Amino acid sequence: MNKTVINVYIPSGLFLLYLPLFLLTLILFFLYKEDALNTVAYVGIQENWFFFLNSKLSKYPNLQYNLTQLGDALVLLPFLSIFVVYVPKIWQSLFSASLVSALFCNLFKKLFIIPRPAAVFNNDSFVIIGKTLAGHNSLPSGHSMTIFATLTILMFGFMPQKLKYQTIWCISLIITGLIIAFTRVAVGAHYPLDVIIGSIIGYISGLLGILINQKYNIWEWVNNKKYYPIFIALFSIGIIILINKIINENLIIFYLSLITLVTSLYIITYSYVKK
């Protein structure tokens, strides 16, 4: 499987960045046209859409709150932990993409300093699911970035060879990503544009992660079994973190993530001992 991923992973070149950069340019032009390149106007032009989407999506609070946890890398990545053994190429790119995503996220949040909905609107005027987030770090949505950076790597990593199936595969992952990303509006944590911009930057992060790994191959050690104890330690720590999350919030998504991680820990430990 890893050989297949290596062979069809992604065509080289930066041309795949053209579309997301074009979309970001369109958003910038829209904000400029609406005279919304300042904090007050940025929030103001989204107010109606935020309240509308928040009211509609929050009708399924349990579902939304479980899905939104997938924007947390500590919950999402355990679902991909088995790939360390069977498709290490995926994890090599995930490492690079995670670093790029973290850099972009911290940079843009400090640059824009947009207040979250709970810091602007009356908290009784919209639905808040879970912890109330009222900081000034709304743009971009970090959860959306994590989701799309990960899905981008999976999209190119397991891209079908036939064009018809490629289209279905890409559209399915994009829709899935948007459904999960917009849970951030449902729980009252972000404005719609925070999510859209975060998703685009997440795609860019995932793509750069793949391209960086292709060019420099800095994570080649992931493919070497002698380094499995590193992952055994990381998975063990992850299990402890997930158990703590279950104790605090007891969400089904945490159980699913935990089961997956425990299974992967068993497989990677068995594979290492068997060598």
From TrEMBL:
The keyword Transferase does not apply. Signal peptide: none annotated. The keyword Transmembrane applies. Residues 93-210 form the Phosphatidic acid phosphatase type 2/haloperoxidase domain. The chain crosses the membrane at residues 12-32, 67-87, 94-114, 167-187, 193-212, 227-247, 253-273. It comes from the Bacteria. Keywords: Membrane, Transmembrane, Transmembrane helix. It holds the Pfam family PAP2. This is PAP2 superfamily protein.
